[in-house]
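Most newcomers find our protein records easier to grasp once they have seen one. A learned vocabulary of local backbone shapes supplies the integers on the structure line. Here is such a record, shown just as it appears in the course material:
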Amino acid sequence: MKYSKDDILQMLISQYHFQIEFDPVVVKGMDFNYESPIFDWIDACDLVNPKKLAKIYHKEFKINRPITELENILIDENNRTVSDLCEYISEHAEKQNIEPIRLLGQNCQTASIFRTLKQNLAEKGADTSDLKPSSEINPFFLKYGGMLFDEVNRIAPGTMSEFEFKANKLSRIGRNIMFVGFIAGIGIWSIWSFHWSLFLPIVLGIGIFQIGDKRKPEKMNISGFKNFRELIYGMENKMNKAST
């Protein structure tokens, strides 16, 4: 089974939306499409250098071709477009085939999707021992957000495409103290001289941030899914639409 070119584009767009919420360095407001230069996409998403990026995609999509082919597309970032990348991956990557399993004498696609997702997450290192269809999304996402997003995105592109996240107040205060302490430390150091006390605001900020990071965020919405059952139904819907 192959990915379509649109599948790959949807993956890239969903990845961008994911990064907007969780990576402050990512450029917001970008509307990239097939005609967007590779450079614009890499720059806006703050991605790693082309060779490292090629290695990631080559491994994740299990592309059975020389990695230099993918490197050449990404290195030639000013002359190549997102369309070139999508076309190459869709041509050479294999999409995981998920066959329905028999439950109570009937074929059940949702059960097969859940089982496959759970197995894939476990293979990547996530603790799925207590994962059930009724399990809430948010607690799991806080631990394994990137991993869950990647697996869902690969099985059913576009299922996770909208994200809302707001850290709790304590985390935000800690982050602000770290930022101000860092800027102030550089300014004072450049005018006078270095002193170990310049690190105190940064250390204080890190401590407050870590305490706040253990608490629930003020807001967290993962494409409207509250539990894994809803997520699996959403994945099944995307897969059915893609096959028609």
Notes: The two ends are 14 Å apart (CA to CA). The CA atoms of residues 50 and 72 lie 9 Å apart.
